[in-house]
Amino acid sequence: MEMPRPTSQPLHLRAAREEDLERLVSIHAAAFPDARGRDARRRNFTENVRGSLSDLLVAERAGELVAHAFLFRMSTWIGGAELPVGGIASVGVAPESRGSGVGSGLIRALHDELRKRGTALSLLYPFRHAFYRRLGYGTVAEVKRLRVPPAALPGR
User: 62 with 9: CB under 8 angstroms?
Assistant: First the structure.
């Protein structure tokens, strides 16, 4: 299988629109393969508890939609003061565009948007730590995985 190569074609970034939904759902299904159907994925974009379709940034290359990511307005408390943060979620890149710099370009565009807003921090749950580490992210809490056989758990 040949790996995609970085391309010199620029990314065009914009807010998602209703007419993008079918392509967005297809990209999301490829990026997050699980049991959710197309309707549930569509609702992820249109009825998300954190925001709406207007919070979703899409990336186009050569006129084709190739990626998406949410940028939610959130806040956290640090040192007794409320601080705005950007919540990055549902970063998905179309399979044919992976490895070509689309994901990194999309994250950098989200960072640019956060700077315009005056937001100093962004938070996310990474799919792969190494990818986000290259973009300046680090782990803020230790993650522990426990393996517990179901039989060891108390009954209902």
Answer: yes
CA atoms within 13 A on the CB side of 58: 23
Task: Give the whole-number percent of the chain exceeding pLDDT 90.
Answer: 51
pLDDT digits (tens, 9 = 90+) for 11-49: 888 999 999 999 999 999 999 999 999 999 999 999 989
Task: Name the residue among 92, 97, 103, 98 with its Cα closest to residue 134.
Answer: 103
**The two structure tokens encoding residue 28:** 């999301």
Instruction: Please state the φ and ψ torsions of residue 116, each to the nearest 5 degrees.
Output: -60, -35
What is the side-by-side strand order in the sheet with 64-78? 11-15, 56-61, 64-78, 81-93, 121-123
